[in-house]
Specification:
By secondary structure, the chain is of the alpha+beta class. The protein contains 8 helices and 8 strands, in the order αααββαβββααβαββα. It is globular.
Length: about 300
Amino acid sequence: MITPLPTDYEAWTAQKKQDFIWNEKILPTQYQQLPPLSKIDIVGLFLTPLRTKMDRLSDESPNPWKKAIHAHGSVAKIKFIPTSSTPFTGLFKGVDCGFLRLSVTGDPSDRGFAPGLAVKFLIDGHPSGNFSALVSLTGQGKNHNIFANEFSNIVPVANEFGPKFINWIFTRVTRYPTKLYLEDMAKIDQKGESQTNPYYPYQIFLVPNPNLKFSENPHDFREDLASISSGISLFSVYGIDPEKLETDSQKISDIVDRPGYRQKATLIGHITTSSAFVSSLYGDNLLFFRHQRFGNR
């Protein structure tokens, strides 16, 4: 029986939160044998209370909670080390305590290998900052190397039935299902200090460390992640500065779909591990990552 987070949890320091979740929740529920990867549960996704995914501020899911997609993955403790030149505020200025979860949408033998990640930056005395990123809505086909491609918080709409149907499900709670805002992460720093003039990237790209190379052949990606130790650079993070975009009369919701904007992204920091990766019952079922809507709905 996994007990809920303590009632005063949000008032803790980021370090205390990270230590508690890691030592009292994730490590005690580490799998002795990896569970098989599940297929995407389309019916379950349709029935999921998606507003909870967008609005819940806790680091823990409501119980019971079942992931219809990205059901199985691995979690590591991380740090975000910013570049000295980053123009962005709040958590983009650096984070010492966080979690990163890498997963796939479902069993690769069913719909191909489709990686995703979720990041949680912990904050002293406040709810955490969260964002998620994908390679694409359709994944990377038969390539099972989870570090083969870069990830982004915004991906183009795919003209295929499966992704289009999942998009339609998410339109019940957001106008832009393939885009996630980063605004909240710029409003507060890791010490809980509010930022006077918050400034955030419109889009970020997480570029894998080229030294992290794994087999493209079918295998369990969680075994690859288990071989990564503490102190390893996982991703270089690039951000698009909104002031450098020539939007003309185009809607802000569409601009990054225009070819060439990826080249406008500049290096803003690196994500490094501060632990090994662990696959666990808690990490798969109860560690919660909020999705911030793009826009007001």
